[in-house]
Design a protein that fits this description.
Layout (H helix, E strand, L loop, with lengths): L1 H26 L21 H15 L8 E6 L1 H4 L17 E6 L18 H8 L6 E5 L9 H14 L5 E4 L8 H18 L2 E3 L17 H18 L9
Parallel strand pairs: 1-2, 1-3, 3-4, 4-5
Helix pairs in contact: 1-2, 4-5, 5-6
Amino acid sequence: MTQVRHAARATIVSALATAVLVATLAGCSSDDVGALPGQEKGHAGEVTQDLCTRLAAESVTRASVVTGVGERVVVIGDSWASGFGLDDPGQSWPRYLDGEVRVSGFGGTGYSHGLMARCGPISFSERVPDVVAQGADLVVLEGGINDSKSDLDEVEKGFRATLEELKGFDVIVLSAPKVKSRAAAIRPVNKMMRRVSKEYGVTYINVFDLDLPMLEDNTHLTPAGHEKFGEIVAHRIAESRSETVPAHS
């Protein structure tokens, strides 16, 4: 029965991701949003149908992989979650978390609605309803790297919208990790997420302190980097869940 249940959930998740792919193909055009996963030099920031298609396919592949057993954990993230650069996207960092883990990852996305708008409604808050439709005991949010290219007010608006969509769920917010080329721009995003997380009474976990093995682009993780990041995040989540972050009155 357990195998059947896992297979059924994997099928549902894959179907939801495929729906995102269809919407992506229908709505994709070009815009300037900064460097994106897998782009060749000279084309940074150009959101084309080909790019949207490739990132959506990667998202579908990762969403079809459900790992582990136990409480239902949903990860909503960007290209780190979807496994950009890995031969097997199913080996991306969320597989190292405890529980039965499902992943909604899409390269180039974040909390800001404008980041990849030409690829469809794929910002974090817009993905929440489908991602949690089958239930979740814990939702882990992994974003902020791409948001460092957006206006901070827009990022905060999208972050708040995501937390509003997740009211009633147990939520963990990961800070944006350190990407050296964007470190200065990431810091204010993390400061905002820490402040708003406290306001909403959700747990915020800092991962900006980590030094992780990166691919040649110095933005995405190597397989060893995914393993290290996933194991550290799992450990910090376990530690954090013994404490409660008080909401503002």
